[in-house]
Amino acid sequence: MRHVRVTSFGGPDVLELAEAAPPTPGPGQVSIAVAAIGIGLVDVLMRQGAFPGLSLPFTPGVEIAGTIERVGAGVSADLVGRRVYAIVGSGGYASHVVVDATSVIALPRAVGFDAAVATGVNALVAMAALQRARVTDGERVLVRGASGGIGLMAVQLARALGGIVTAASGAGHDLQKFGAHAVVGRSHHTDDTFDVVVDPVAGPDLPHFVERLAPNGRLIVCGAAGGFPPADFAAALLTGFSRSRTIGTLSLDSLSRDEKAAMAQRVFALAEQGRLTPVVHARYALDDIASAHRALEAGSVLGKLVAHP
């Protein structure tokens, strides 16, 4: 099989195409012939060595979609040929992957492989963040990094929940066609206040958005595309103590497998119904994955990058 491996941390050039024997599914596992691979900022961070404890060599890639090709002992042969989506943690940059049979999500007929990975993790993070923030009808919602994968899904889902959505993006894309009521430009700064801020960016500007929370407002950090915030980023909570504002964080790692599966079924159903639009910015061959990483680092991507093995 073809796969991409990283033998040293660094820039996009450390991504190497390699050949290996296809993996064999063990008991309770399935082998998936991969049709589409989601490429995200988490892959960039893994490549850079940002996660403590990540051992070399490794194959990046946290989400794939494809067809079940083989099954291990204890798994029904009826699954062979099923179109599925899976979050794999790592190892997704490959033509074949092996995962636990209980971790795959059946894809609706109308949701293609590219659409699945363009929805996938990004929509799960966005939905979980909005649920954590308890968004209700008519609340003012600001989405940072709204052109990115998580942000674009958060804009659409917040609108579907009845939120009055402001999209913060410096990329110049038309985000109103995805449900944003208003767009904040390159400075990302606004004097408006919001009931909810969904933030996959964090970074040095985070304190500004804490200040923009209305009384009883909730800010959920669900990513760090802009790097880590300053150590005193939460000082605004103390200076504005009487406003009862809240900061929380959201990682999919905190959700159970069953919770993620139920959420995935829901977002794929929304995509099938046309209520959630997966956006594929560009497609890459597996041997050009470094170009995809460079595009992500340039910050001009609208939605998701997809690779085909």
TrEMBL record:
GO CC terms, sorted: cytoplasm
UniProt keyword annotations, A-Z: Cytoplasm, NADP, RNA-binding
Cellular compartments annotated: Cytoplasm
Keyword NADP in annotation: yes
Statement: the UniProt record of this protein carries the keyword NADP: yes
Signal peptide from the UniProt entry: none
GO molecular function, one term: zinc ion binding
Parts forming coiled coils: none
InterPro entries given in the database record: ADH-like_N, ER, GroES-like_sf, NAD(P)-bd_dom_sf, Quin_OxRdtase/zeta-crystal_CS, Zinc-ADH_QOR/CCCR
Domain Enoyl reductase (ER): 10-307
Chief location category: cytoplasm
PANTHER family xrefs: QUINONE OXIDOREDUCTASE (PTHR44154:SF1)
Subunit field text: Homotetramer.
The name this protein goes by in its record: Oxidoreductase
Species for this entry: Salinarimonas ramus
High-level lineage: Bacteria, Pseudomonadati, Pseudomonadota, Alphaproteobacteria, Hyphomicrobiales
